[in-house]
Amino acid sequence: MWWALVLNLAGSLVMLGWMFRRGGTRNVLLGVGVVFAFMAYGPLVNLILGESTYGGIVIAHLPAASTGFLLALVGLAFADLLQPQRQVRVPATSPRTYELLPIILAGLAGYAAVRILTLGPAMLGADKLTRIELAGRWHYPYLLAETFAVALYFVARRTAFYRALYWLNAAAYVAYCLVTTERDFLFVGLAVLVHVQVFDPSMRSRRLVVLGVASVALAAFLAALRENLTFGLAQALNQGSIPFVDTFVRLVVPDFWPYRFGESYLEALNPRGELLQTWLVNLYAAGSSGGYGFSLTAEAYLNFGTLGVPVVFVALGLLVRWTVNQAGRSEWTTYLSVLLLTAVLTTLRGESAQLVRMMGYGVVFFAVVWLGSSRSRTPTGVAHGMLSRGAMSVHDRV
């Protein structure tokens, strides 16, 4: 069994290395692959090293699950081969004035400040569930709204006033997440940073690597605080619940539950459909108040078996690559590219229904901001030029 894990891990590193060679750190699919590999293989590395790992992992199904992880990265690498990443530029600033944007940013920042000042001291000494209860019913809607607001970075940079409000709100959002030990800001922040680097070829790629490592450390530190664990390397590697979900799903499917053959992807379009993570909780620990998330690899297996994993990840990779290549054509396409990357990074430990809902709510959010704005008589200027119309690949530059 251990040899299978090591071989699959080695094969995954080869896939990541191949994507790095093709596009360097500016290869967005490489970023998706690295985040996925960390979540999927972190607990397995702990097992190999004899450290404690994420509870509930079905050891007998680890080799098959790790093969699924490798095939997911093969799918991303194949998508990278099919559709190269183009050089894009910061979008031209549209003539719209976005009057609603500063109101929304100020409102979100104000909400965070009030909650921190009134509930922050009580939260600091509480456990995870108590902090969430203290945060109240608007906790998760607020986090979701902030994800959409932070994704508007390339819209907010149009004037000094908008930029100041944007960073004020971002600081309030991060402070709120730190007090409540939530890590949502890391994914949208990483998505924005990736796009800044994609748009600016002069930016040193090592900056993104350093920020990525710092994000992992911060995520592990917040998890340690939330669960009263000792912060360290082994604890950091246990951030991903993917091995638990994938091995458990393989334990019950198809022996006890049949393959769904695409049903969950159709159900994802139903805003009131049951989430797979609810199905998992009911099977694993019925009546439990805790959630275990899910995973995109487990969902692919649940529908089509192991061979469905690379197919799903090829499709996912092509979708991410297409939106990145369209970024820069307008503020709409740039926002959607940032939002999709955020949603994908967030739902690697989730499911397609969460990805679809996050994208749907995000589109509605920006539509409200966009429709609530007027057109100025003269454009406010062009930042760095429009999308390059040539087909030059980012791989040709690195």
From TrEMBL:
Query: Which keywords label this protein?
Result: Membrane, Transmembrane, Transmembrane helix
Q: Which residue ranges does UniProt annotate as crossing the membrane?
A: 6-21, 28-49, 55-79, 100-118, 138-156, 208-225, 300-320, 332-349, 355-372
Pfam families cross-referenced by the UniProt entry: O-ag_pol_Wzy
Xref: InterPro entries = O-ag_pol_Wzy
The domain of life for this entry's organism is: Bacteria
The residues the entry assigns to the signal sequence are none
What is the protein name stated in its UniProt record? Polysaccharide polymerase
The organism encoding this protein is Actinophytocola xanthii
